[in-house]
Amino acid sequence: MTGVNRRNRSATDRPKWGAPPSAGISARDAAPFGWAPLVVLFLVGIVDRLEASVISGVLPQIQAEWGVSDTLAGAIPTAAAIAGAIVVLPAGYVADRYNRTAVIAVVVALWSIITLGSAAALGFAMFFATRVLLGAAENIDNPAGSSLLADYYPPLTRAKVFGWVRLTHYAGMALGVMVGGVVGQFFGWRGAFLFMVVPGLVVAVLCWRLREPARGFLDRVVARGSDERVPVPNGPGSGARADAAGLRSRMRGLDFRGQIREVSAIPTLRLVSLGLTALTLGLGGIFYWMASLFQRGFGLEPGPAGLFSGMIGLIGVVGGAVFGGWLGGRWHGTRPGGRILAGGGGLLLGSLLLGCTLAVDDLLLFSLGLLASNFLSAIAIPNLMACIADVIGAASRGIGFAGLQFLIVLGAAAGPLVVGAVSDAMGSLLGAMYALIVPMLIGAVLVLWARRHFEADAGRVLDRARSETAE
Q1: CB 277 within 8 A of CB 269
Q2: d(Cα 48, Cα 176) in Å, to the nearest integer?
Q3: How far apart are CA 27 and CA 64, in angstroms?
Q4: Which among 441, 328, 322 is positioned nearest to 383, based on CA atoms?
């Protein structure tokens, strides 16, 4: 009996990642719940995008096997993104009302298993269907993950943490192209999809070990503006109980449509979301077709083309996002809307450089131009995501990030399809890339316009947190 009790006690008391220190947390803590939640959510994003982007590295093989046109090939991510757009708002509703760490763990495990369907597809229709199902599943966890980050990390470090997690969308795309190209060349395109099943299941287990933080508690600590340490509800289930109690108070009388109206009325959220949509459209279209462009335009083999294009995207986006997080940290609080200025300026310069690069026919200069363009555009990733977390109240962050994800998946859907359709019409994949420039420039202008609204929108969130603390 003693042995049984010991096993039960150890299973119950096993510490979870993201538990606060016993002394409590203060408004000055950079990572009050530790860095483990950031690492786990970073891995979720990497594996998610790796699985979704493996297809780009093996796309020529799939097209050759089933005789698929560029338009139909470009429609694969479009259909997957549309499926994701359908489920993302309900996913935000779930993220605002249920245990977010459990939601992410279950979803990651499910889409890892569904990946087997892509590898086992007997025809293009079956393959297309599995990609659509995965597109829906992969968008369910995004609102929950973004909401968690805002409850794990304060405004002081939000640009950094959102930058690292959001860059997984683009770095994972680059790595996926590399994995698809290299694994596909040696083991076939089916082997590339099989390769991704195990990492997803491992990450799902890691998510299950995360502690669910109380929603909005960190905002209230920050709003106090004091170095005093505040005790955090601890122990098995206490965070969830505090979360539920807070939700009943803050969401009384606010239904699903009410939440949507509330977040839609935030000017900064509207403008920055459109800017991020344009960024996703541009980078998504470039990454999806980059390996094919190197094969067609410069005569590279599938393996080198996937590796080369993946490295360009990975180095450019990771470097830009890391630099953007540092720049946003320096500019936040030192100038009005400093992070928005950094993000919008980077997107503007990156878009202009992309247009110049597409006119270059030298492989080395073309590659360097793409890398620099990705670097500049990626400065927007950490800064704009952090700005959105700053202007949405804790009780509606799931819905707010779901709305953002809805627009982003539409951008992800449009980029590859637009390039594929224009390529078929023009007979030039390189020429089709120019269709991405205008929306990216418009997005940059919208982001810079949002700067005039940011301080007021962010101030309202802190004012609400102060009133909740007083109550």
Answers
A1: no
A2: 10
A3: 57
A4: 328
Q: How far apart are CA 241 and CA 214, in angstroms?
A: 8
- Amino acid at the residue 213: P
Question: How far is residue 28's CA from residue 465's CA, in Å, rounded to a whole number?
Answer: 16
Which option is the CATH number for 35-222+265-470: 3.30.565.10, 3.40.50.300, 3.20.20.150, 1.20.1250.20? 1.20.1250.20
Pick from 161, 427, 399, 177: nearest CA to 269: 399
CB-CB contact of 148 with 18 (8 Å)? no
Give the Cα separation of 139 and 135 in Å (integer): 7
Residue 25 and residue 229: Cα distance in Å, rounded?
A: 5
Q: Retrieve residue 285's tokens.
A: 């279209």
Q: For 212, which DSSP code?
A: P
How far is CA 92 from each of CA 85, 153, 175, 256, 398, rounded to the nearest angstrom? 11, 20, 28, 9, 4
Q: Is 318 helix (H, G, I), strand (E, B) or coil?
A: helix
Task: State how far the alpha carbon of 96 is from the alpha carbons of 103, 123, 407, 469, in Å.
Answer: 11, 39, 19, 20
A 10 A CB-CB count for 187 gives 12
| Close Cβ partners of 252 (under 8 Å, ≥ 6 residues apart) | none
For residue 145, with 0-12 CB atoms within 10 Å meaning exposed, 13-18 middle and 19 or more buried, which class applies? Answer: buried
Q: What are the angstrom distances between the C-alpha of 61 and each of 49, 115, 190, 229?
A: 20, 18, 10, 58
Residues in the chain: 471
> Which is nearest to 443 in space by CA: 352, 324, 382?
352
Its pTM stands at: 0.67
Dig out the tokens for 244 from the structure. 């539920």
Strand partners, 17: 210
Phi, psi for 180 (deg, rounded to 5)? -60, -45
pLDDT in 10s for each residue of the chain, 471 residues: 444 444 444 444 445 788 887 778 887 888 888 899 999 999 998 888 888 778 877 888 888 888 878 778 878 877 887 887 788 888 888 888 888 999 999 988 888 888 877 888 888 888 888 888 888 887 788 888 888 998 898 887 887 788 788 778 767 776 777 788 788 888 888 888 888 888 888 999 999 989 888 888 888 888 876 677 888 765 434 444 444 444 444 544 456 777 788 888 889 989 998 998 888 888 878 877 888 888 887 877 777 777 777 788 778 888 888 898 888 878 877 888 888 999 999 999 999 998 899 888 888 898 899 899 989 998 988 888 888 888 888 778 888 888 887 887 778 778 888 888 888 888 888 888 888 888 899 999 999 999 988 888 888 887 877 776 555
